[in-house]
Amino acid sequence: MLDDARASRGGRRLPFKAQTRFSESGVMTVSSVNLHIGDSVPARRELVLKDGEISFLEWKQEKDLPALHFAHANGFNGMTYRSLLSPLASRFHIRAWDARGHGMTRLSADPTDHRRWTIFRDDLIRFIEPFVEESGGPVLLGGHSMGGATSLMVAAERPDLVRGLVLVDPVMVPRSARLMMKLFRMLGRKGGPLSLADGAERRRAVFPDRATMTKAYKGRGAFRTWPEEVIADYVEGGTKTRDDGQAELACAPAWEAANFRAQDHDIWADLARLQTPLTLIYAGIGSTCRAPAPDLLGQRDPRATLLRIGRATHFIPMEFPDAVRREMLDLDARLGD
């Protein structure tokens, strides 16, 4: 049973399939990729762009279903959320990308020249546009942490693409903290309000193999509340095999750290122009979406659902996946009213 407090404003409360590369000029089947069994079988696909390729997972049934995209947190990848999303495959046509510098996506990721998350916003717009065209209308955007913030930024910039938002503990850095981080950068210091960046830079990137990596993460640090299968999915979707056979994180620690520090975007300005129906799920422990963000988000949608899960940490999708799935289904139903 969830230890939560709900506030709503007028609202209701794996073997892989054929791998396909999508481009603006057409679709080309490339190969078959086999992973492990899940509740539903996703496919790994690629959207080919002029400057690289965006890799993503897709759950697609034969029948027409509402379109849903889910964006991952900093340092993670789409595969991390397989066990969250697979049970929804009978209700949604789902895609889950690997953002720039993460997972299997191949786009430039230079940590030395990275100041704001608008690069992810613009990438997601490019990624969502063909999904909207294929689906025949705007899509539901879900996202965790950085993925939630990026989804919000897309909805503010291109509301025509977005049917609704499910934001799972989105990163909403206070303006005072952003100013402090700029000051630290001007002084040539790496610390500041987001000390997570320092920890990310020290993260071990290379292990003898994926099994050793999975074992090393189990029950430790950020992974201490994660089910083992979710850790295994994170490792599987977020590592590459080196020439010497060792497993290496696909998201370089320097890039993960740069993302924590890259807070020059003004998400509060984006929030102020948001017009999209939304649901917010945020943590009772260590949330990245603290006051006044929940109230301000609720003001943007008179029927918004604001769900605080008191016993949850920032890793809500791993700890309370049923709650996240329920809210995505509830918002879809509300939008269909």
Automatic annotation (TrEMBL):
- Where do the AB hydrolase-1 domain residues begin and end? 70-326
Gene3D superfamilies the record matches: alpha/beta hydrolase
Membrane-crossing ranges are: none
Matching InterPro entries: AB_hydrolase_1, AB_hydrolase_fold, Carboxylesterase_BioH
Q: Which SUPFAM superfamilies match?
A: alpha/beta-Hydrolases
What Pfam families does the entry give? Abhydrolase_6
Q: Which UniProt keywords apply?
A: Hydrolase
Q: Does the keyword Hydrolase apply?
A: yes
> Can you name the source organism?
Parvibaculum sedimenti
Q: Which GO terms of the molecular function aspect are on file?
A: hydrolase activity
Could you identify this protein by its name?
Alpha/beta fold hydrolase
Q: What's the domain of life for this entry?
A: Bacteria
